Amino acid sequence: MKHFINLQDIPAKDLRKILIDAKKRKTLRKRLNNLDVDPGSPLKGNLLIQMFEKSSLRTRLSFYLAIKQLGGSTLTLRPDELHLAKGGESIADTAKILSNFGNAFMLRTDNETKLNEFKKYLSIPIINGLSPSSHPTQILSDIFTVEEIKKRKISKLNISWIGDSNNVLNSLIAASIKFSFKLKIGCPKNYQPNKNIMKYIKRNMSKVHIYNDPKKAAKDADVIFSDKVISMNDKVNKKKKLKHFKKFKIDKKLLSFAKKDCVFLHCLPRGKEVDEEIFSSRKSKVWQQAQNRIHVQKSILLYCLNKLR
Ligand code: CP
Ligand code: NVA
Q1: Of 15, 30, 137, 185, which shows the fewest CB atoms inside 10 Å?
Q2: What is the share, in percent, of the chain residues with pLDDT greater than 90?
Q3: Do 156 and 93 fall within a single domain?
Q4: Is residue 263 lining ligand 1, measured as CB closer than 6 Å?
């Protein structure tokens, strides 16, 4: 049994194994419908319990289809309907019940400690479906999408992130270290990654570079990533923050600094950080990116349940 909480904690060779499995599975499903089960039903009889303490569209749907396509089933708990939320039941007791009834637990939470507390008490794997500090299933899936589009290992590519230093970027930084790819970050001076992330970058002698000029970050990029300037539950002066990011908008001019065949990726939902012209252009691969969540999360589930071939 393995947890999937942060990319930092997972060996690079395991992350690569997940991607290889996802590629094989995606190829095998070309003629199958959404709810058709993969040959061999590898997770037959397994229940994935999901709980979202914050909004979700893609993660919810893609995990639903992921476990179904592996022959298992899923149940989504509403946090406000559990005793846990009202303070009546402990994480320890909740975890005991989840472990007895389910085979894996996917949690999206605004509380980092909760993830670790659940990990402590669960005897089934826990998957982080987005926390304040990371979004690992998103980024592993995005690595898959980049390699699928570019038909090359990500270590051979120039990756750029233009936007806020948030949970998604933290996971991209971890991925850059695990997969050894160049990552240029473009963000305003006061919005750089936090101290711990900066220490992690330095400690690992990484290929991560930070610029306060978006043009420098976009230069020669094969892929440009972005995300909303205001994340869910971001407790900031929104107007002020949006103003600080004005120069960091992804538009035609900014993309002209990147390679000619540069593609644009965004985990979604989007805000105003990207021009409609770019978002709906052929350079934008955001729908393919969202679709791939299903394939990669299937292999993450198999990894967590020790069923990866
Ligand atoms: N990208 C992503 O995680 O989307 P949702 O918030 O809709 O799940
Ligand atoms: N950074 C965004 C990602 C949403 C999928 C957020 O946390 O709201």
Answers
A1: 30
A2: 97
A3: no
A4: no
Instruction: Report which of 168, 177, 136 is spatially closest to residue 268, judged by C-alpha positions.
Output: 168
Residue 237 has pLDDT above 80, yes or no: yes
Q: How many folded domains does the chain comprise?
A: 2
Name the residue of 50, 57, 62, 287 whose CB sits within 8 Å of the most ligand 1 atoms, as the mutation to test its pocket: 57
pLDDT at 270: 98
Cβ of 268 closer than 6 Å to ligand 1, yes or no, is: yes
Look up the CATH number of the domain holding residue 238: 3.40.50.1370
Is 110 in the active site?
no
* 220 — pLDDT class (breaks 50, 70, 90): very high
Question: What is the mean predicted confidence (pLDDT) over 176-183?
Answer: 97
Question: Which candidate, 239, 221, 249, places its Cα nearest to that of 164?
Answer: 249
Q: Which residue ranges have their beta carbon within 6 Å of ligand 2?
A: 130, 166-168, 227-228, 231-232, 267
| pTM for this model (two decimals) | 0.98
Residue 196 resides in a domain: yes
Question: Is-catalytic flag, 282?
Answer: no
Beta-carbon count within 10 A of 83 CB:
12
Sort 268 into a burial class: Cβ within 10 Å, 0-12 / 13-18 / 19+.
middle
Can 289 be counted among the known catalytic residues? no
